[in-house]
Design a protein that fits this description.
With 260 residues, the protein is an alpha+beta fold. It is 23% helix and 30% strand.
Length: 260
């Protein structure tokens, strides 16, 4: 990899501008059976430990591809695997299709930023976009969502809708939605509606209970809404009007209720 794509200045510039770059050997995570005992003895000798239960380690292990000696993974700040690429297979595929290794690798990186989940079976991609329906209660007052949004034409709305059920909180509470945008082209706007509201397709969403608009790429926004009795809400997620029609981005949201 160092002698191919990582020797290209264009790739290095793109990686430095868009990612925090790091690496780890398969042996450190116990992926190489013959080296597990020597690695364990080395840790003992050096007084070191490596906790594979950590979120980052778990994300790496989740993205492993069986039989691949080298994997390239794109992992979000929330430790969601956004793309995975077995390098050896990738170079062979590029060669067979007449595509340069650099162009193929750049496509992989861009597709990961655009929440296209490269390297995943297309049939499983929808399952990766979690939390289209969120059911909160006293035993589970917090849930997480990973989803995507798309920028509409200026002046329009193109909502992806997440249903939030808070009916278990009979006495009401405070609904908090902590949103972090991915690093792709589109910023995000989010509007909270009543569960039975008809979501608008054009113009400013004056029917919204509360909103947070124009969260830039890679940045964070928060919605807070106090309600008097449990009910169902709709969270409409859309790209900003200034992001360019059709551009998409991923977003990660932590949705929680604090009981009154």
């Amino acid at each position: 990899m160092r002698a191919v794509v990582l020797s290209d200045d264009q790739i290095i510039k793109f990686l430095n501008e868009n990612f925090i770059n790091t690496w780890i050997t398969n042996a450190e995570l116990g992926r190489t059976p013959s080296l597990r005992e020597p690695i364990a003895k080395r840790y003992e000798r050096e007084g070191k430990t490596f906790n594979t239960a950590q979120s980052f380690a778990q994300a790496i292990m989740k993205g492993w591809i069986d039989g691949s000696p080298v994997d390239c993974l794109v992992i979000s700040p929330e430790f969601d695997v956004m793309g995975k690429l077995p390098l050896n297979d990738s170079f062979d595929e590029c060669s067979n299709n007449g595509i340069s290794d650099v162009d193929g690798y750049l496509t992989f990186l861009n597709d990961s930023l655009d929440a296209k989940f490269p390297g995943f079976n297309p049939r499983t991609t929808d399952a990766l976009l979690t939390g289209a329906n969120v059911d909160l209660n006293h035993e589970k007052p917090t849930d997480k969502v990973l989803h995507i949004l798309r920028a509409p034409k200026y002046g329009n709305q193109d909502y992806n809708v997440i249903t939030i059920d808070t009916t278990a909180f009979e006495n009401g509470g405070t609904l908090t939605i902590d949103i972090r945008m991915g690093s792709s082209k589109s910023g995000g706007s989010f509007d909270l509606f009543d569960g039975d509201a008809a979501l608008p397709k054009h113009g400013v969403p004056t029917e919204a209970l509360t909103s947070v608009w124009d969260i830039p790429t890679g940045q964070r926004g928060i919605i807070e809404y106090q309600f008097d009795m449990g009910k169902i809400f709709q969270l409409g997620a859309t790209g900003t009007w200034f992001s360019g029609k059709g551009n998409i981005n991923a977003f990660h949201a932590i949705i929680s209720v604090k009981d009154n």
